[in-house]
């Protein structure tokens, strides 16, 4: 009897699973054939390819479609290919797609759970409004002297070590961004150029890497989304949470006891704890931690890809050095904030590195209010409803390498950004996202990467070391776009 019940349950389960696989067919939306149980993401489940690589592959296969229907396990998901539709989702119809497909309970992960990236609805809106004043261009000018100091320390650090060894680019850039975030967010010297493994680096090495059991939970939640509400999942390791909380607590106390005012993000948070009774110490800690994790990691990823591309493309490196040298030479061997803003070729090279290697390879939005998809006249699809709760994917990696928008899409050619008319890459080049949910730290991230690279190019000739495995393949597991094997660079002092 039990056997019969189990058989009936399994057969009905299989039947229902297969039934769901007709979801897109019924609506006439094109898409790749799903594999039973895993849907279209088998290569990610088997740790062969990153999700961003997979979405981009699917994006590329369906050249003539505005959207592609796929299955994550047996859940229907939409990949949006059309820039006009992307504009609608991120800007015009934002009220239908205002949340990210990410879930962290702030009672379980109090630091990242309070981060705007993970927050939803009204809570996201009010937190974003609270933090936005910390990222104005005025505030960037405020922290710029700290960034200059850290950049000079970077040059001294490379200088000291380059005789004996070449550098793992990501690690070098991470030391730089950790020091700059330490200075600009916490008002502290993170000592990443002095010690081999200082506390900030230990925290940085572990922050975004869910360990053991948490990684298994993350995988299960991805496969079976209903588990989100049943399984307690955290990204921030417990000991990292304790260390960061202590750093913030001590800094706030020290400032209070000694009446210290510094030009940094912590001062803004400190003021909020004094002026807003709803803003508690745990909020200050969470937002300082948010600045920490978003500030060092994405920027160090971008910076190391930019250095790699400059090392691999000598012509671009030389041209960039001419621009940078001129600015330093005309300003007493310094690079003032206003001068950095004028470096158009540096800006183009930065954008081109972001185009080729966007750290966030895909954006996953959730439909928060049913949305009617209206096809164009030449489409073979009827109008249909994108239901509340459906996940829509914007494949940044797919868009950024689409030959329809970028000629020779796999080549590093900063000139394309110089020649382009304003806004011509809108909604096809969007490394920071678009619309109300776009990256809050874009100004700070761009500033620290550009100043760090400017100081390096001013002082060193860089080349790719033979230890680098080419062509670069992306890590299938890490949540950001990162090479599976490290990029090694050689530095030759020229000044
Ligand atoms: C160059 C480096 C960076 C890149 C490429 C980058 C990219 C992104 C992307 C793609 C998003 C998602 C946008 C969306 O959902 O539409 C995002 C969100 C966010 N980023 Fe960045 N980011 C960078 C640096 C930073 C820095 C330095 C900070 C802060 C110090 C920061 C803070 C945030 C926050 C708070 C969000 C969530 C915004 C929201 O949901 O309202 N980012 N970033």
From TrEMBL:
One family name in Pfam for this protein: p450
Recorded superkingdom: Eukaryota
UniProt-annotated binding residues for heme: 439
Compartments it resides in: Endoplasmic reticulum membrane; Microsome membrane
GO cellular component, as recorded: endoplasmic reticulum membrane
InterPro entries attached to this UniProt entry: Cyt_P450, Cyt_P450_CS, Cyt_P450_E_grp-I, Cyt_P450_sf, Insect_CytP450_Detox
Topology of this chain in the membrane: Peripheral membrane protein
Keywords, comma-separated and alphabetical: Endoplasmic reticulum, Heme, Iron, Membrane, Metal-binding, Microsome, Monooxygenase, Oxidoreductase
Swiss-Prot/TrEMBL cofactor(s): heme
Predominant cellular place of this UniProt entry's protein: endoplasmic reticulum
Function: May be involved in the metabolism of insect hormones and in the breakdown of synthetic insecticides.
Family per similarity comment: Belongs to the cytochrome P450 family.
Protein name per the record: Cytochrome P450
